[in-house]
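**User:** My hope is that you can spare some time for a protein that puzzles me. I have put the entry right below:
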Amino acid sequence: MNHNLWTAYEAAAATGGMLCVRGGGDGAELPEESWSARGISIDTRTIRPGEIFVALKDARDGHDFIRNAFKAGASAALVSKAPQDTPDGAPLLLVNDTLTGLEALAAAARDRCFGQMIAVTGSAGKTSTKEMLRAALVPSGKVHAAERSFNNHLGVPLTLAELPNDTAFGVFEIGMNHAGEITPLTRLVRPHIAIVTTVAAAHLEFFDNMTGIAEAKAEIFAGLRKSGVAILPRDNEFYDLLKARVRDNNPAGATQKIVSFGSHPEADYRLLDINSRGDEGMDISVSISGETHHFRLGLQGEHQAMNAMAVLAAVDHAGGDRSAAMEALAGLAPVEGRGLPQVLSLQARTFTLIDESYNANPASMAAAIRSLAQQDVPGRKIVVLGEMKELGSQSAAFHLELAPVLEDAGIDKVYAAGNEMRPVLNALPSTMRGDWAEQAIGLADAVSRDIQAGDVVMAKGSNASKVSALVKELQNRATASG
């Protein structure tokens, strides 16, 4: 992080706020005017020394934690009032509304940076694509991206406000649950490149149909710059709709470009072939402008290969080094909750646990199952599935559609948690059926007993299904017995 990301005067100019202090300083200098910050935080539990604390009013009022922020080493606090327990001499930047103030910092950070801004949205693969972009662009210049999945109305402005002015490539993940949520965020980022990874059933509870989801994802083009590039999934059923929305958002005189990726014969970045290499990821063949290229991706699954196509398109159109990007993608590894494999030993039975517990929707669930199917393993392939949430009135049908996917993938044993998953289990052949429990943690004993040496166990479900609790329990048992 830049050690002088914001000075007091820069932050005040960006927000239109007033520099002030409760109490007095030591007289040598004015504390409200002499501070600088190396970062920004909205959480006193994770704030680092030298950061600005933004006292947001969200689930709780951040103003109640001002004292904690300064105790942890905050350089200043962005506030809309000065609480009585604010330490004497603590610098404050007073604004009418702290979220608006954070967004103003974000806009100022964007305007003083001349790097390429890249925004990513989609029903699945946003974080994976963001991390691929981070790795692929590093050889070409300084990259700024959030360390976590900061993709909402707080995370996006926070990430943008921390953008160093010497950044070559800024990468921003933008998510949504409802229509209208992406528009203000993409207009804040104003990307040069906008990527839609896919449109699939996710958060369908809040939409009338899938077309509504596609329209919501297409909001990302509302912020695309006049000479920007839209990168779209050519195989997706809503490709034509997304393409039309790029055109609809074209301001007068714009020269926006549409680039496609996928396995479709007309895709600009066309996936030709993938070959799994187990723990080493997979070898990928791709056609770009009629030329065939080969590279290795350190992740598994056709869905990750598709994400990589979008990444290569972004690297090319952001002015990055494609060859160096391909080399960098080979070094990628899965992260916790998103396909991270661990070799564990449970009572002398060594097995592999694949943690896919971060989240799930029908598209990502099917992709994870098919990815497991492509792997060559010494033992059986066991899947533990938690419910998929926010699917609305079609939830039962979306869950049941997983049964043929599991059969076609040749999964050996399936365990299921939650009422929506019970019909899936019942629809499978008896030889594939494991146990069912209301909560995922309730499957721990049955899965532990069933595991044999050489097995691969993949656990996946929505956050709310608490599959992560089962993952942690298996890890704890393996550590204790191994």
